[in-house]
Design goal:
Layout (H helix, E strand, L loop, with lengths): L1 E4 L1 H8 L3 H8 L3 H8 L8 H11 L3 H4 E4 L5
Antiparallel strand pairs: 1-2
Length: 71
């Protein structure tokens, strides 16, 4: 099982630049990039809330659960 981060999709749909989102959220562009790539082990709820606020979306719009095909 895995969690897929759909932040790139949401940014494209909203025509938002990563730089602007990172500034609003209060994280570096490098950390936002890691989050977009799904290379983080976790995300703080307040960070997730600020992302959702800026993108006018729900957490479920950003994260998807996918079952492993081998399971």
């Amino acid at each position: 099982m895995s969690i897929r981060v759909r932040l790139n999709v949401m940014l494209a749909e909203r025509n938002v630049k990563s730089k602007d989102l990172a500034e609003h959220v209060g994280i570096t562009e490098a950390n936002l990039s890691l989050l977009k790539q799904g290379k983080v082990k976790g995300v703080r709820f307040d960070t997730l809330a600020r992302i959702c606020e800026y993108l006018n979306c729900q957490p479920g719009d950003l994260l998807r659960y996918e079952r492993d095909e081998s399971a």
